[in-house]
Structures are given as C-alpha cells and as structure tokens.
Design brief:
The protein is of the alpha+beta class. Helices cover 22% and strands 19% of the residues. Strands 5-8-9 form a three-stranded antiparallel beta sheet. Strands 1-2 form a two-stranded antiparallel sheet. A two-stranded antiparallel ribbon has the order 3-4.
Length: 282
C-alpha cells in the first residue's frame, strides 16, 4: 500500500507434493496437438491411442492423488500394448511399481501470499495513501512462533496444558503431523474442548470439538462453494485414514493442507475454517 513489499522465502524440498496426472487427459492433449503428424505416420499409432481410450478404465482404475516428496507410492511407470491373438488383437498393460519421488532441482515461477485483513476498495486505498503522505506511519514486525507438545502422543491421545506468552497475536493454528517427514500433510485430530485463553478472554466463543455436529456444520458451510451441500474428501479421509506407526506409513490420498482449524484473534473472537490447497479430485 505504501511501498515495496519484500518477502524472504526459505523452502524445504521435502515440503513439495507430487501430483499424478490422469493419463487419458494427457493422451487426448497429445492427440489434439500432433493430430496431423499421427494421421500421416500411419494407422498403427492411431490404433494404439484408440486402444488406450477404450481399455484404460477397464484394466486399472486410476485416481489422482498427492504424494509427499520422499515417500513411496505406487506409480504407473509404463504403459504398453501386448498382442493377444495372431490376428492383431491387443491388450493394454500398465506397469505399476513402488517409487520414491525426490527433488534434485526446482525453479520458483510464481508466489502467492495470503495476508490477514479485510479487502479494501481502490477509493479506500487512495484515501489512506493521501492521509499518510504527510504523517509518519509505523508498521509492526511480524513473526511466526511454534512450540511442540511436552510429551508424545499415546494411544489415549494428548491431554496437556501449556502457558505461552504472546503479544499482538493475529492468528493461531494447530497442526498435527501424520509422520515426521510429512511437512505439509496433516490429519484431522480428535480435538475436544479446544479454546485459547488470553488476557482473561477466550478464543473462540465456544469450545471446538472436531467430532461435534456444530463443527461439522461449519465445515459444510465453508465448503459450500458450488451450492453442493456435501463434505469435502479431505475432511472425510482425515477422520477415517489410519495413523502412521513405527513400522508402516500411510500415503495420503488427499492433500490434507486443504483442511485445518484456524483460530482468528485479530478482529473478532469467532472460530473460522480455512481451506487452502488443491483438492485431489479428477
């Protein structure tokens, strides 16, 4: 509003998420772009593409999913056509193998910053700019602080009380990792009576229970962006997906960054739900 905004970014390569692309869409895109070349090269390639479209859903039901970088997941590593009869009848075969995805190099092409506050119109921004042209303006610094629980989670959960000094808090967010290597994938914990008390004030007004009817209604209202009154896949899978153990780690089938609880403390003391990320749907 008053000058250049400088943002320093430190990225952890393990925080990236790999998205498997639906092969039929890519084949259709390849066919539309190289249609003239395929028609001039003969009928063999066209037969293989037609075979792919007809047999893909019958052989392997493929769904999009996000995989944390550094984790192992079943990927489609190869697609080939095998002859079944001497007359030339072919069958589509998919090679599915466990693959561990890693990042060697990356290039940042765009950055999006989400900032707290209400949206201001152009008229309001111009009035504020004129007001501070001859007056000093002070911008308070911001930082993010994090704390861990004093004890690890047991089969009965975590029951703890912590006192942390804060000053000029705008937001508080509770994050629960499914695995120590999961930097961005979280799960929905079973929280009961979650509230924050500061300066004898309670945030939010009511205690949040992630399994209560009231919280589920809030989630439905926040997800009602396309007039479809239905719970999102992230919320359902976060409740039903088993926890990771010392011997087994479950790969998430959805991007759990799309679901987390945000306690708004800046302008009001009402609970809020924020959905940020990509929905892993076809």
């Amino acid at each position: 509003m008053f000058g250049d905004l400088k943002i320093k970014i430190k990225i952890n390569p393990s925080a990236f998420i790999f998205c498997q692309v639906y092969p039929v869409i890519q084949i259709a895109k390849y066919y539309s772009i190289n249609k003239d070349e395929l028609l001039s090269s003969g009928q063999d390639k066209l037969k293989d593409i037609d075979l792919f479209f007809r047999n893909w859903n019958l052989i392997f039901q493929y769904t999009n999913m996000y995989t944390q970088i550094g984790c192992t997941a079943d990927f489609v590593t190869g697609i080939r056509a095998e002859e079944l009869t001497p007359t030339g009848l072919k069958n589509l075969v998919c090679d599915i193998r466990p693959v561990t995805v890693s990042v060697r190099n990356y290039v940042i092409t765009a950055v999006t910053a989400n900032m707290s506050g209400y949206k201001a119109s152009d008229t309001c921004i111009n009035r504020v700019r004129q007001f501070y042209q001859s007056r000093p303006f002070e911008v308070s610094g911001q930082r993010i602080q994090s704390w861990v629980f004093p004890s690890a989670a047991s089969s009965y959960g975590i029951k703890t009380t912590q006192n942390k000094p804060h000053s000029h808090i705008t937001e508080m967010c509770l994050l629960f990792l499914k695995d120590s290597r999961h930097v961005t994938c979280y799960e929905n914990p079973h929280n009961f009576d979650t509230q924050v008390t500061t300066m004898y004030r309670i945030f939010p007004d009511f205690a949040i229970n992630t399994l209560s009817e009231q919280f589920f209604t809030m989630q439905l209202q926040a997800n009602n962006l396309d007039s479809t009154f239905d719970a999102c896949d992230e919320y359902e899978n976060s409740v039903t997906t088993p926890r990771a153990s010392k011997t087994r780690r479950y790969n998430p089938v959805n991007d759990y960054t799309s679901f987390f609880i945000l306690i708004q403390c800046e302008r009001n003391n009402n609970g809020a739900l924020t959905f940020d990320g990509f929905d892993s749907k076809k």
